Each structure stands twice: as structure tokens, then as C-alpha cells.
Amino acid sequence: MPIDVLGYAAKSATSELGPFTFTRRDPRPDDVVIDILYCGVCHSDIHNARNDWGGAMYPMVPGHEIIGRVSHVGSNVTRFQSGDTVGVGCMVDSCQHCKPCIKGFEQYCDEGSTYTYNGFDRHDQRPTFGGYSSKIVVSEKFVLSVPTSLELSGAAPLLCAGITTYSPLRHYKVGPHSRVAVVGLGGLGHMALKFAKAFGAEVTLFTRSAGKEADAHRLGADRIILSGDADQMASVTRQFDLIIDTVPTLHDVNPYIPTLAINGTLVLVGYLGPLVPPLNSAPLVMFGQGVAGSLIGGITETQEMLDFCGKHAITSDVEVIRIQDINAAYERMLKSDVKYRFVIEMASLNA
């Protein structure tokens, strides 16, 4: 039977989030019913709730960094049982038969992946609602096992911030002989530092702000470069095999290109939109360099990332909040006033 759920929703692009009661679908044979324990707060939650990217559907229940405990499984479910600790990330379905899906890149599904919120269920066309809620119902294929060794609140952001930075590091085969730089020290950036260090790379942080040295070193950076200092930027000319650019807002990418090694690549994981000023292609051509993008990761790779985190004791640095404080958290995020990810303790829904 359908499941009644309490959550928090945005009713419009300009309204604050507030309590919202809705109904989850009647579980299907391949579904897992999850009691949500924690949900991370992603910068994209703000963009979606405020319709910054267009296409917002209201009421909207955000949240796609979900950690919970299985309460029920469908008759066809084989990988999970009641009591398991699990995660759900940015997707809850895809067509599962196109070339990207077959290759494990469900995020690039030719028919469009079904997002955890602000989407439509592929089977019954009902809107999807996210993790700012007490329960969620998800197909087994899109549920992830969470290592029992991980602290659960810190594990929640791994489902988006974690896989978003892990995936390009794996794709570009980062290892002990790699030189990696990270642009920006926020929710994504701090995870990129942790992962790059765990892969054995030499790690550099690019930042506009002085005073981040101690935190950056703690998170895995071997060196900090102030991107506004011409001498410091010149000192790292043609050094980096890979740059992970995590900045979520419009910024000039061109100053980082000279720091790429021959055949090096800068990967954008934070900003979506036109580059202003335009990208100068001359150094890319002259030194075989590239600028690329990367979107989260497929389900298999996300599970690999969680297992890697379990092995290396990697979680996100978080500030746990009550759901009642979500609007204040949004305002603080816009001011970069968090180290480094807010996570909602969903038990607060009943407070």
C-alpha cells in the first residue's frame, strides 16, 4: 500500500522550505523501502529549489545524499534485507538498455536518468521527491551498500560530493605519480583533496583566499597556491596532470590552463553554463591540453567509491543540523559559511 511521508518542501522559487506531507508509491517487487537517517544538503538543492536552472516543479522535496536503513524489501529484491544500512544518490532510475546504461554510465542515460527529486517516475509518471523526508522507496538497482565502518552523517555527502570528485580522478587514472590540483575548497573541493591524497597523488589547492593552509593540509593538500598571486601561479606552470575545478559559480578558467602539464586536463565538476571570458583554445592546441566535464558517476562506480571510503576511512566533514534549520543553512551555504557540508538529521522531523 502507498506510504504516507513527512518531509520539507519548497512551494515556489521564492518561498522558504516548510513541512509537507505526501505519499510515496506502493512498493514494487524490485523496490527497497528506506527509513532516512541523514540527508546531505547540496548546493544544487538551492539551485533547484530557487529555480536557478529552470525546470523546477513545485512542491519540491530536495535531497539526494541519502543514508538510511532498510525497513522493507520487495519480493524480487536479492541484494538487501531489512536492517541494512544503505544509500541513495542523485538518481533513482534510468532506461537501463541504452549504451551508456549498459556501460554503467546511468547518469548519461540516452533517455535521461530519473533524478531523485524534481523528476518523474518512469513507470507511473508521478513526481519524484527527495531525501528531506522520513522515507523513500527506490528500485534495488539504485540502492547502494554503505560500509558499516563509516560514520553515517559523514557518509551522506559521499552520494553526491563524493562521487562527483572521485569519478574524474578514476577516469584519468590518478595514482602515486600524478600531480593533481583542486580549484576551490568547499563541499566538493574538500572531498577532491581527500580522494586525490588517498590515491597517492601530489596534491595542490588553488584558492583565492589566504588563511586556508592549515585546513587544506589537514584534508590532504601538499601545497596551496593563491590563484590571484601572479608569481605563485607562474611557479606552477605546466605542472598538473589533472585539475579538478569545483567552483559552482561563474569564474575565469583561463588562468589555470598554463598550469596544466602537456596533455593535462582541467575537469569542471561545479559550474554549469557558458564560460566568461571565453576559453582561449591556443594553449590547449599548443600543449595538447583539454577542458572537460564530469557528472556524478554510475551506480557501479558509486559503490566502488563507497567501498574505497570504507577501506580508507574517508567521510565528508559535516555540520549536522535539524530540518527546521534548513532555510538558515541555505543562506549560510550561499555565504560559504560551512565546513564543509550540512547534513540533516532526519529524526528532527518528529521534533
Q: Report the span from N to C terminus.
A: 26 Å
Q: Approximately how much beta-strand content do the residues carry?
A: 25-35%
Low-confidence regions = none
Please state the second-level CATH architecture of the largest domain.
Alpha-Beta Complex
User: Would you give the CATH topology of the largest domain?
Assistant: Quinone Oxidoreductase, Chain A, domain 1
**Which bin fits the share of residues in helices?**
10-25%
Q: Kindly report the name of the CATH homologous superfamily of the largest domain.
A: Medium-chain alcohol dehydrogenases, catalytic domain
Determine the structural class based on helices, strands and strand pairing: alpha/beta
Main sheet record = 7 strands, mixed
Query: Overall pLDDT, averaged?
Result: 97
Number of strands: 17
How many domains in all?
2
Rg computed from alpha carbons, rounded to a whole number of angstroms: 20 Å
What is the CATH class of the largest domain? Alpha Beta
Query: Helix count, per DSSP?
Result: 10
Order of helices and strands: EEEHEEEHEEEHHEHEHEHEEHEHEHE
Give the overall form: globular
